[in-house]
Amino acid sequence: MAAVLAVLVFPNAAHASSGSVFNGDISGGADFSDGGRSGEIESIYVYDYKKDGYGVRARSWVRGSYLRTFDYAGGANGGELFRFDLVEFTGIDVDVCSRDSVSGVVRTFNCGGTRYFYA
């Protein structure tokens, strides 16, 4: 009788994704990072490369539903780290735009493409 060997592969947090997404002219961006081990907090670091008077806004969605906006308006060559928690292996879509605020109303423009990550 022949022996049968079965190998089961289960994803683990070591396979979670991390990476960058940028606005349209790459003057700003956001880095998504999963903690790397099960149960750790995810983060998005939003940064601004260009001294143009505009800030940077990263927007996020989970399963098509709006999750959160991450804004940085502190000036060129700086950024801000935002921490949040997702259930492990949850997918998250992130895009980045330039942002401007006039009389308290924020408008976004110069958006780049959306990138998919998972926690």
TrEMBL record:
Q: Does the keyword Signal apply?
A: yes
Task: State the taxonomy lineage.
Answer: Bacteria, Bacillati, Actinomycetota, Actinomycetes, Streptosporangiales
Q: Which UniProt keywords apply?
A: Signal
Q: Which residues form the signal peptide?
A: 1-16
Keyword Signal set for record: yes
User: Could you tell me what this protein is called?
Assistant: Secreted protein
Q: Which domain of life is it from?
A: Bacteria
